Amino acid sequence: MDLIQILVLAIVQGLTEFLPISSSAHLILSPYLFGFADQGFAFDVAVHLGSLLAVMIYFRKEIRTITLSWFGSLGPNGQADEHSRLGWAIILGTIPVVIAGLMFKGLVETDLRSPLVIAIATIGFGLLLWWADRHAKRQRDMHQLQLKDAVMIGLMQVLALIPGTSRSGITMTTALMLGFTRETASRFSFLLAIPTILMSSVLVIADLVQQAAPVDWVALATGVILSFAAAFATIHLFLRFIERMGMTPFVIYRMLLGAVILAIIYL
């Protein structure tokens, strides 16, 4: 990979990871659009790791509070509060996608990385996001998040294994359907990304270390740094404007992207 390819893919990942438009779809499609060789799953995970660092640093205070409260709730004398419940919610919401990821890892890395699958998922789940945002009550906040809500959001997150679905998109869609505000849906989606991306990164890094083929660690490290910068800026701007902006701009973008992909395939 040359520097231009690394730069483009890392910025694409950082900009799209936390927007409901599917970062994995953009990473897979970028080689088709720019004439790059497929960067492979390892680089995809590297730039996801950069996004992970961005969300962990951005929400560092919340993460610290949640972690301390969660540990404080353990044991016979533990005291549960809203922060410890949020910790349990993140754990429960992560379990389904971890299990599904392990079961279908080979399928995700091969057969599902096709433009047709991406186009169908981009359009279909984009319409679902539009419906949820249009009909959502948007009355519940993070204090009203219950464990059953987290389980439902976590189960729907499994669909994000299909490129084009968008992990943030499907979790925000489900949260909106459950009556949460746009900001709450976004914040919980971002927090839920932390263990999900972390576990997938650990698994792939372990595979890279053990494999005999050489790994371009400089390219991976550069991708991490660039995607971190782009993702950090995206999180800040998204949370600042999402309540006023709504999901419609992202739905329109998904429809156009899906149409362009289908046109490239069949025309």
Q: What would a concise description of this structure say?
A:
This protein is an all-alpha fold. The protein has helices at 3-16, 23-34, 40-58, 60-72, 82-103, 105-109, 115-135, 147-157, 167-177, 182-210, 217-245, 248-266. The chain has one domain (3-266).
Can you offer a commentary on this structure?
With 267 residues, the chain is mainly α. It has one domain (3-266). The protein is 77% helix and 0% strand. The protein has helices at residues 3-16, 23-34, 40-58, 60-72, 82-103, 105-109, 115-135, 147-157, 167-177, 182-210, 217-245, 248-266. Helix 9 packs antiparallel against helix 10 (182-210).
Name the shape in a single word. Answer: globular
Strand runs, count: 0
The percentage helix is: over 70%
> Domains counted in the coordinates: how many?
1
Name the structural class: mainly alpha
The unreliable regions are none
H and E string: HHHHHHHHHHHH
Largest sheet: none
- Discrete helix count: 12
Determine the mean pLDDT.
89
Determine the N-to-C terminus distance: 30 Å
Q: Give the amount of beta strand, in percent.
A: under 5%
